[in-house]
Every structure is written in C-alpha cells, then in structure tokens.
Fold this sequence. Notes:
Blueprint: H1 4-13, H2 24-54, H3 59-67, H4 76-88, H5 97-116, H6 125-132, H7 137-147, H8 149-155, H9 164-172, H10 179-193, H11 198-203, H12 207-222, H13 228-233, H14 238-247
Amino acid sequence: MLTVSQFENLCVDMEDEDDDTINFSALETELHAALEEDAKYWRENDAKLRAVEQRVATFDEFRDLVKASHLKPLDKQEKLNIFQSKRSSIWNSLAPKKKQGIEMETTQSHSLNMMQQDDHVPMTTVEFIQQWRPLDICDRLLLLKFTGAHKVGELVKSEIPVGILGEILQALLAFSLNTPDIVFVVRLLESLTEAKRFNLSLQFLSSVEKETCRQLMEKLSSSFQNRQQDLAEEGITEWTVLELKNKYKV
C-alpha cells in the first residue's frame, strides 16, 4: 500500500522524467486507497475503545459496533426523506390481515432464534466452541478479544479441544500492527502454553498450521519496530517473543 510520504517521495524522484512515462492516475488511486485504509483503521480502533468503555453485554454488540464504525448519523434532510418514504408506502397497511399475521409470526420467530443464539462471553469450553465454529477469521479474532486472553486461557486450561489451537493461531495472524493488539496476542499465546498437554496439541498441528504459527511469530518480531518503549512498558520485549518461539517450537 502506498503511503502519503511514499507518494510524495515518488513524485520528487520522477520530476525529471518524461510526463508520458508517469501514470499519475494510478498514483492518485494508490494514494486515496492508502488514506482510506488509514481512516478505516482509526475508525474501527475508536469503535473498539467505545465498546470497551460502554461495557457491551454481548459479543454481537461488540462486533456490530466495530462493523458499523463507518456509518454516520442521519441529518435532518435524510430523516425527512425516510419519513416521506414510509408515508408513501402506507398502502402496506391494506394488505390482508392473515398475510400480515404470518409475516409477523415469521419475523418474531426469527428474532427469537437470534436471541437464543445471541453471543455472550463464553463461560465454558462448550460455549466457546459453539460461538467459535460459525465465525470467519476476522470475527474469530474479535471473539478472542471480546473474551479476553486470560479467560480464553482458563477455558482451555484443562485441555485444548482438537483443532482449536491451529484455528486460534490462524485468527491471531490477522492482528493489527498496534500496541494493544500486539500485547493481546502475546498474552493469549502465553496463556495457551499453560494448558495441559499443550505440547501434544502442538504435535497435532498440520504443516499448514505450523507455517501459520511461524508467520505469526515473525509478524510479532517485526512489530517491535518503533514500538519497543510502548511494549516494554507492558512487560513485553523481543526476548518475550523468543521465549514464545521456543515454546511453540518455531
């Protein structure tokens, strides 16, 4: 991804070149993409902080706050347009009552199912697995953060369920390069090593999962650039990652 500073440096380097050889349109596209990616990161980061401050009760609420971070409140004109749109569709009230009843019953049934499936901080390993399985990688990372490194460690302390260690490593590989995420990943990796038969779980990792683990450790090592002081204040140094590499046999 091309950053603003890289874009400026590239333009300086190209000043003496023929304009016909410079694709300014492509450079501008790269610049806008970089700015949008940076803005997205800070929006989602602010949303995560708000979710923690508000002490949301469920993982669904936490995830929805993050996913909706790009949305803006409606202005007066937009609210007026929605109101007028609703008035123009008032003919729906003339629909047969029987049909309305069926639709309402279906909606209520769907809402009930959603409530029954509503996520919360898992209290047992079974609850954790039930919430974990249907999620994609990004949502799994959110679930891990929502649950907390210490709590996840407690849930798997007696035994790491088959296949879960590799999936957790895969989810952690998606962490963002910021101090809170780095601290969380290190703390969770440390907690997992305290599980019974942890070494046995390592042996059951597939070759792909072992490569994922290696990539995760390398990403952690490279994340120390320009963050040594902040991480040191959290008790995390490059030696911490070296110890993790030894424990995970990387």
